[in-house]
């Protein structure tokens, strides 16, 4: 593998593979694509490491952790008395923000640049756009441009951008997006959040812990709409217990930010609400209404892909090898949030491993047998994206789910049966904390006797999830799962109880 760009009698820089975007996904795709001797360059416009490292997973989880630890202590007599009960803020704000800063590496990407260098991947700083098949123009911060040519493949790993709903005055009110929330250096006294998805519930929890009076404006009638309905019931109750004002079926119809001489453009935000027409006043408003793939401005029209809405960019159709459809020559790939399949880091990195391996096998100097695309669970195909996607929502209680919900399994035509068990009745959960509540549910395929999906709601259920993911991906028959004996007294014993409930 060469670390140098190859020049072809012009001042163009030529690599075998060019990856656009050095988030977690771009880094992984580049690393794996380079394993069979291909030269790889990654183009990055902001910080190497992307959203997850600096404005998403890591800082948000760092903000949530102190509150979770305190709540765990409050449930254990012997420790509970040492923890203040009703203090607001619940956490030590300065230390929480300081630890968050450190998890965000102080928004400095030096260590990730070092990693790229060690992996033999060339970093090109600037904003890339396609100017034709396999050709990209990169514009640097100083406005200079250069052309990169990919001999073999281009991977789009450009991530996603938040959507700002078309509500009168909202964009002009300069709302927070998840970036401002996860990187906040000050805690607003009153925070309004628009949305009822993952960002909304995690940030409602974190800012409530930090001392904000949080109001959650949820358009629909439940939180986390893609999950089992009992998840929303548990979260609404627990957020309300934390003091969050959860308003289901409520939308802002107009938003205005006051501009005052003292506060300048950072005055109060007034949100007029539908139905009652009442006005909610907050110091900040966080928009957490979903994200869309960052494909605008990428020059995809130069390779034949057009967008219905040019501001949004084209939606990319990818096959299970993550190859973009509708482009001749089989050279364009996409992975992660940009590919529009599943917007989580772990699933994006999985797609990146697939795309990197496909490129290494197709174009590299590989001894490996030809890419083995026909097999359903080949490592050259992102099969898990369809029915085996895991996700953890780091609220209190935590929500951990994988695979199909009951409704999705029925829609997919399976013969479905669900079994449910109260987590509070498991010895391991009881030892961990008094009065613990929670629910575990399996969605079963009656015909094959396998697990299609699992949902856990309760404290510390995140670590239960991987066992469920293995059961779903492995399509392990229930009578074989019976022989996977959970240790006593652990929370995992809920697996035994679920299987007993299923009739074993
Ligand atoms: C608040 C929040 C919390 C989250 N928490 C979790 C979590 O706990 N767990 C989890 O699994 N997922 C979480 N996610 C989702 C996760 O952050 C994303 O799925 C993940 O970051 C996607 O990675 P990516 O590499 O595809 O995109 P990104 O991380 O967005 O990286 C894309 C990179 O491409 C660069 N780029 C874009 N266009 C160009 C261009 N034209 N030229 C050059 N560079 C370009 C960008 O600057 C960026 O660095 C969270 C998301 C949010 C918003
Ligand atoms: N722990 C994690 O894995 C984690 C944490 C945070 C974010 N993420 C990822 O980040 C992505 C973005 O998260 P998100 O919460 O922004 O999106 P989301 O899709 O999870 O939720 C969007 C919410 O906004 C609501 N909404 C949409 N349009 C609206 C409108 N016009 N007005 C009012 N409400 C509206 C939806 O009903 C939904 O409740 C998700 O795909 C998620 O997977 C993951």
Automatic annotation (TrEMBL):
Its cofactor is FAD. FAD binds at residues 61, 158-160, 337. GO terms for molecular function: dihydrolipoyl dehydrogenase (NADH) activity; flavin adenine dinucleotide binding. It comes from the Bacteria. Residues 15-348 form the FAD/NAD(P)-binding domain. Pfam families: Pyr_redox_2, Pyr_redox_dim. Residues 389-495 form the Pyridine nucleotide-disulphide oxidoreductase dimerisation domain. The keyword Nucleotide-binding applies. NAD(+) binds at residues 195-202, 290. Binds 1 FAD per subunit. Disulfide bonds join 52-57. One of its GO terms (biological process) is 2-oxoglutarate metabolic process. InterPro entries: Class-I_Pyr_Nuc-Dis_Oxidored, FAD/NAD-bd_sf, FAD/NAD-binding_dom, FAD/NAD-linked_Rdtase_dimer_sf, Pyr_nuc-diS_OxRdtase, Pyr_nucl-diS_OxRdtase_dimer. Keywords: FAD, Flavoprotein, NAD, Nucleotide-binding. Belongs to the class-I pyridine nucleotide-disulfide oxidoreductase family. This is NAD(P)/FAD-dependent oxidoreductase. It comes from Sanguibacter suaedae.
